[in-house]
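I hope you will forgive my troubling you with a question about protein structure. I set the record out below, with my sincere thanks for your time.
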Amino acid sequence: MGKKFLLYIFTLGFLTFSQAQKKKITLEDIWQGSFRTAYMDALRSMKNGTEYTVLNFNRSPRSSSLDKYNYETSEKIETIVASSGNIPFFSSYTFSKDESKVLLATEIEPIFRHSRLGVYYVYDTASKNITKIADQKIQEPLLSPDGSQVAYVRDNNLYIFDVASNSTNQITTDGNKGTIINGITDWVYEEEFAFVRAFAWNSDGTKIAFLKFDETNVPHFSMDVYGQNLYPYQYEFKYPKAGEENATVSLQMLDVASGNISQVDLGDTYYIPRIKWKNNPNELSVQTINRHQNHLKMYTVNTLNNAVSLLLEDKDAAYVDITDDLTFLEDDSFIWTSEKDGFNHIYLYGKDGTLKSQLTQGPWEVTHYYGYDDKRKRVFYQSTENGSINRDVYSVGANGRKKRRLTSKTGTNSGAFSADFTYFINTYSTATTPYEFTLHQASDGKLLKEIKNNQALTTKLEGYEISPKEFSTININGNDLNMYMVKPADFDPNKKYPLLMYQYSGPGSQQVANRWLGSNDYWHQLLASEGYVIACVDGRGTGLKGRDFKKVTYMNLVKYETEDQIAAAKKLSELPYIDEERTGIWGWSYGGHMSTNCLLKGNDTFEMAIAVAPVTSWRFYDTIYTERFMRTPAENPSGYDDNSPFNYPELLKGKYLLVHGSGDDNVHVQNSMRMIEALVQANKDFEWAIYPDRNHGIYGGNTRLHLYNKMTKFVKENL
């Protein structure tokens, strides 16, 4: 290209046929499901290691079935259970530890991002009997290890259902909306620590550990719901904004036989983001972290006397991420991941918490920990060793030696392993290859057979005008940042094209990745067919390039990220085929905050921006997320205010579209209302849209189609 800042470019050839007479992608194609990919839903290994189960759905007539397959042949062995007669349509399933029972979820009703209400059944695989757990909708049911009982939560209280006697025992009675929650998390834990079920059975089913939340003093949040009624009503819940009071959380221990509950004294504890039983039924591991989230402690609780002892500590000058990368081995030694050497890697500890060895190391990230094969003494994981935009599956010995790459194709690979680690099913895709599912030997990665592909989708896309993603790096502010670009199919290097940049930019995130297309990628293809060049740059603060690159934005969210996007836009405008007078940027959520800031602080660079569901002040966002990166407003007022765009609306020069859902429980519409008011008082012209009762995803019915129609029209008219 003749530009020094483009260190390398490789184009993934999408299709080699001529673009003549190809159809252009339409918004209806995208949002009415024309490009659906075939997938293997809820793939799980049976404990025998030779079979796996998949949840299959039929659209017409609407039905579901839980089917068992043989790993070696990929042939269906049997249907374990299917919806018909007295078995309603089910959308998810869970086996008991001994696989004698299956928990089936029906009539699912979403609450927030992860939480659901539903009607659940227990299916006995031997007798074929099906038992309804409760007539009311319940939350987070969990079978005991032997499948004889189900613990669940209803109306903030914990219950146990006995399958054989068809009887229910209410365990707690103090649960109440807005005050006490037993066994499930409050809103902010669900959103930021990414879990809802806050209870767990021990290995022999004699104990249940659970968290109790007292959110009495958490500030109250409400939002109007308009619906179809004559009068709107207010939806109310507790939401702690940055610097405000969080729920008080305690660890409770239930003795199942007696029904006795005791509180475990964890000392001066602020957050309890994870609990996990060891193999020893009398020992529970508990992770706690301070309000600044830079000092994690993992304790062992001896449930015979509730004695607590420190097992492990992890500290960071900025923050420690919470993950599920913890496995207790047969003797309760354990495997753990940490960024303590500057990159996320795997460590082996003794049962007493003594570090035995670091199993992986290097200037790359472990992105997923799959598990430990006790028989062969090997650890299985996914990493970025083949470049930060790619993923491969590896294994390494428990001594950190004899590492093996188990996948061979460059792109995004992920493994679903059999229970005994004999096989794994690899899910593979690239920016040009839809998902492929193949069976491999776990010992060496040898390909055994193809299970499923998306050739039908590939064939369908051959009839459309598609442009490849060009992956590269761009040197900005001393860093080689990952980038992709999409050009019009009939690209002419002698012409000038408008540039639309897309980004998210949040801490640890990644948008520039060699994986199959998402909905926004299809929209970008539509825009490319209309003569736009699309570019995406992952700036400082994004993930998978080491701890320092990610955490450089600590205490100053959006500051350095904005600087990088502005600098990238300026450098890209130097390209001979980019019209420097027609540069736009768009993003959603964190990306909406970014696009707003870029348009204002980069008003000599950007002529247009779209912000969907943006944060406009971190003072309005929740405690756990915001304080992890910013500390509290009292500790860091300039970090909160210097990059809040409604504090400098007078900087707006370009065209601006602001969009929000009025029912957004996550990034409240308050953010956009404050931005709107600031722009009005600054007498700035802009466009905005509010989608009634829509949450952070702004979807349902024709909502997404309408939104993207609006955004497409705005881009065409203003860029």
About this structure: The first strand starts at residue 6 and ends at 11. The chain has eleven helices and 44 strands. The two ends are 24 Å apart (CA to CA). The first helix runs from residue 27 to 31.
